[in-house]
Design a protein that fits this description.
Number of helices: 4
Oligomer: single chain
CATH topology of the domain at 73-217: Rossmann fold
Strand order of the largest sheet: 5-2-6-7-8
Structural class: alpha/beta
Helix content: 25-40%
Shape: elongated
Radius of gyration: 32 Å
Strand content: 25-35%
Length: 236
């Protein structure tokens, strides 16, 4: 039997035993990675402590109303939190374990979100004062400093907050006000949304206690007499 002209038989390439063993070991890993890539990751939801303002179809005001004459300026310093809490994680305590949610996060660090919420709550409660967490051109009349030493929400639905705060006046003749509180509230923790809601309720109650317990002692300043009025009624 003769071979056709121009045809050359091709021999199958030899596979080294080591290469065959490596291929056999890595094949299952590659299949597992491919399947993991096809699995959709859980959706991530981002939460805030402040509610979106309801406009009712009306345009939002671009500026806040001016404070009344003589309104004290109260500057709220950034809330201090334990390091393990001051993050964007939604955390639930289970005994001595802290379980982080895989599907929910805060929009910003919790200390920033807590400062925004408490400032907004106090500003709403004290329309006679200028409550702000923003830098001012002049030193504030009062500076509010809040330290939260505990803010735990357990897997059983119990939320505990421990905090102390200090109101330091600019006027050295006024006394510094110091207070402390501890309380527990209960609520559902079945979902990330309910955990965020319970945490907000704890901070809202803290705002209420700061206002009723000490901030109500901050009163408006007497108006400063003008140069014209200071000489009124004086004789020639």
């Amino acid at each position: 039997m003769t071979r056709s002209a121009g045809t050359i038989p091709l021999a199958a390439p030899a596979i080294h035993p080591v290469q065959a063993r490596v291929a056999a070991l890595t094949a299952p890993i590659l299949v597992a990675l491919a399947l993991a890539g096809c699995t959709a990751a859980p959706a991530l939801t981002v939460y805030t402590l402040l509610d979106e303002p309801a406009t009712g179809g009306a345009a939002l005001a671009t500026t806040d109303p001016a404070p009344p004459p003589g309104a004290p300026v109260i500057e709220v310093a950034r809330v201090s939190l334990p390091d393990y809490l001051d993050s964007r994680d939604l955390v639930v305590r289970d005994g001595d374990l802290l379980r982080r949610s895989d599907t929910g996060r805060w929009a910003t660090r919790l200390s920033v979100a807590a400062t925004d919420l408490i400032t907004a709550q106090l500003a709403a409660r004290r329309p006679d004062a200028w409550v702000t967490d923003q830098p001012q051109a002049r030193p504030a009349d009062y500076r509010l400093m809040i330290h939260v030493s505990r803010l735990d929400i357990t897997s059983g639905g119990a939320g505990t907050l421990e905090a102390d705060w200090e109101i330091a006046p600019r006027n050295a003749s006024e006394a510094v006000i110091r207070r402390r509180t501890r309380f527990t509230m209960t609520g559902s923790v079945e979902t990330d949304e309910r955990i965020a809601r319970l945490e907000r309720a704890l901070l809202e109650r803290l705002s209420s206690e700061i206002d009723s317990g000490s901030l109500q002692t901050v009163r408006s300043k007497p108006p400063i007499p003008s140069a014209d009025s200071s000489g009124a009624g004086s004789g020639p």
